[in-house]
Specification:
By secondary structure, the protein is an alpha/beta fold. The protein has helices at residues 12-22, 34-43, 65-69, 81-92, 116-123, 138-142, 156-166, 179-201, 206-226, 231-234, 237-248, 253-262, 267-272, 279-293, 299-309, 314-323; strands at 5-8, 27-30, 60-62, 74-77, 101-103, 129-133, 147-152, 171-176. The chain folds into 2 domains: 5-177, NAD(P)-binding Rossmann-like Domain (Rossmann fold, 3-Layer(aba) Sandwich); 180-323, Orthogonal Bundle (N-(1-d-carboxylethyl)-l-norvaline Dehydrogenase, domain 2). Strands 3-2-1-4-5-6-7-8 form an 8-stranded mixed sheet, sandwiched between helices. Helix 4 (81-92) packs parallel to helix 5 (116-123).
């Protein structure tokens, strides 16, 4: 049986997921811009975000939302968190009932603090929702390097079908029922990656970076569990796996933002020169609000918010982190 896949959003990750799905099923990619859709159809590449990488020749692109969505059997949302709700409302005008929706977006909605799967339930109730997440750097996957990801959703039957849509010989897809933990892992690791990048930028060593990542994982797990996630999720691909890739890769946008902050540049300067969204910049404040609402301490996230939004310097942040009175036990909640 043919399953028609629609991917909404032609950024680097949306395009890569569409390229993977096109190996297995008829896939159409929606781009806001007609010239980019034309380039993908004619040249099989996305010059804006993935210059030099060839896309599957079976992948089609369109700038018409109606054409992208009206016959879709699976809808994949690959737009940044700040445009997610509005784009979903557009999608809803042509999407058939009960079509599963897969979110690729690793952010929280500002103001509501909702995860993207919660936004889907609010805007398009009745549609099954899954999350595709993990340590996945677009260019490495397009270059044919092996990678693994997780499809998180409560319905095992649909999850298995989705695994088959996205999996290729070199892209392995696991399933996980913990949507909350999987989604929050993807959100929070971006914030910790900014902290890890700041360590690089101020010239701290690998010991510091390892400490930031490990303690960052502890913060992620504490908040994730407080919000209903499974602690084991944070030890897996959606937690530690994604955290490691994002904290150490030169391709990571969030790590890059942190590194530039560490070198003393302002957040406005850094954002102005980037052509893609670093979700951690937007979500760090929202993560901190969520943590405060459930009484979870997140010292690393607090320092990131201080540097990104409150005018502190990365040097101040690292002094703050290092001078904090240590908890007596590593796994103590404090």
């Amino acid at each position: 049986m043919t399953i028609r896949v629609s991917v909404i959003g032609a950024g680097s990750w949306g395009t890569t997921v569409a390229h993977l799905a096109a190996h297995n099923e008829p896939t159409i990619l929606w781009s806001r811009r007609k010239d980019l859709a034309d380039q993908i159809n004619q040249e099989h590449q996305n010059g804006d975000y993935l210059s030099g990488y060839r896309l599957d020749p079976n992948l089609r692109a369109t700038s018409s939302m109606e054409e992208a969505v009206c016959e879709s059997d699976v809808l994949v949302m690959g737009v940044p968190s700040h445009g997610f709700r509005e784009t979903l409302e557009q999608v809803g005008t042509c999407l058939r009932p009960w079509v599963p929706i897969v979110s690729l977006t690793k952010g929280l909605e500002q103001g509501t603090r909702l995860r993207m799967s919660q936004v889907v339930h609010e805007v398009l109730p009745g549609h099954p929702v899954a999350v595709l997440t993990g340590p996945n750097l677009a260019k490495e996957i397009l270059a044919g390097q092996a990678a693994a990801s997780v499809v998180a959703m409560a319905d095992d039957f649909i999850a298995t079908a989705l695994q088959n849509i996205f999996a290729t010989r070199l892209f392995r897809v696991y399933s996980n029922r913990d949507v909350i933990g999987s989604e929050l892992g993807g959100v929070m690791k971006n914030v910790i990656a900014i902290a890890s990048g700041m360590a690089d930028g101020v010239g701290a060593g690998d010991n510091t970076r390892a400490a930031v990542m490990t303690r960052g994982l502890a913060e992620m797990t504490r908040l994730g569990v407080a919000l209903g996630g499974d602690p084991m999720t944070f030890a897996g691909l959606a937690g530690m796996g994604d955290l490691l890739a994002t904290c150490i890769s030169p391709q990571s946008r969030n790590r890059y933002v942190g590194e530039q902050l560490g070198k003393g540049r302002t957040i406005d300067e850094i954002i102005a020169e980037m052509n893609q969204v670093a979700e951690g910049v937007k979500s760090c404040r929202t993560v901190l609000e969520l943590a405060e609402s459930v009484g979870v301490e997140m010292p690393i996230v607090t320092e990131v918010v201080g540097v990104v939004h409150q005018g502190r310097t990365a040097n101040d942040a690292y002094r703050g982190l290092i001078s904090r009175t240590p908890a007596r036990h590593e796994h103590h909640p404090g």
